[in-house]
Amino acid sequence: MDIYVYYRAQHASSGPLQARVQAMQTRLQTTCGVQAQLKRRPESAEGNQTWMEVYLDVPADFGAMLDSAVATANLLPLIEGARHIEYFLDCASCA
Q1: In DSSP terms, which residues pair with 5 in a beta bridge?
Q2: How many CB atoms lie within 10 A of CB 62?
Q3: Where are the domains of the chain?
Q4: Which distant-in-sequence residues (6+ apart) come within 8 Å of 11 by Cβ?
Q5: Is residue 90 predicted with pLDDT exceeding 90?
Q6: Which residues lie across from 86 on neighbouring strands?
Q7: pTM for this model (two decimals)
Q8: Per-residue model confidence as pLDDT tens digits over 26-74
Q9: Measured between alpha carbons, how far is 93 from 74 in angstroms, rounded to an integer?
């Protein structure tokens, strides 16, 4: 299963947000063995940017580990609104 997390952040918060997310993802890669990516839309809207965290081939209990990592990294003060989390299975796993 893969997890995709998207959210908005003020353009002014992009430096600190990127540093915190990348550090968090490095810890998760080391402790959980998952592949992680951080992406951002190239454009901004009303001073906000859309960010996307990607976690590939995660274990079943990864959602709880991610929630804990987000709290430890103190990401929420840098984010506008909610983090939207979506789970996807490979099509071969769905059949």
Answers
A1: 53, 85
A2: 18
A3: 2-90
A4: 44, 47, 48, 49
A5: no
A6: 4
A7: 0.91
A8: 999 999 999 999 999 999 988 899 999 999 999 989 999 999 999 999 9
A9: 34
